[in-house]
Amino acid sequence: MQTTVRIRRARANEASAIARVHVETWRAAYAGLVPDDYLVRMTENGQAFTWRKTLLRKQPDSAVLVAEAPPAGQGAPHTVVGFGSCGPNRGSKLAYNGEVYTLYVAQDWQGHGIGRKLLGGLFRTLYDQGYRDCIIWVLAANPARFFYERMGGQRIAERGQEFAGEVLEEAAYGWPDLEDWLRQTGG
Q1: Is the pLDDT of residue 81 over 70?
Q2: Fold of 2-185
Q3: Which stretches are annotated as coiled coil (predicted)?
Q4: What is the pTM of this model?
């Protein structure tokens, strides 16, 4: 699967496909980490509305990328199996200019290098937009934090963040030199 997945910019008509991956991965990854009632109320229609607005806004300093798998059969469409978004640091006082906002891969497609390809695409996008460093905030209890450590991220900060009426601990992972990361990984 790894070699057949293509990373590219998302299109507005893919908001529903992005929403499907978003809801599926949140329910799997965050069960027991965020309030259950939030996950139950999260819908593909609601997320599709949010992603459609984001994609139609077309902010020049932000991007949404998708991981696209080839058609499953003759005449079948390509399938969005992951997505990520990035842009300027959204207000953290840390001295990092770029930020990866989201990175999710459908459960059936995890473990095949797609997350790494998406992260590389996001880093390349940030670098091409003039960002030389980057952070990502993750729930401190989220096992995905180990992925970011394997990708060279250094844990640089923690904070409490209110989410659905609860304060959850988040950890920031930083990459101080995107150019170096891209060179070392061939991105």
Answers
A1: yes
A2: Aminopeptidase (3.40.630)
A3: none
A4: 0.92
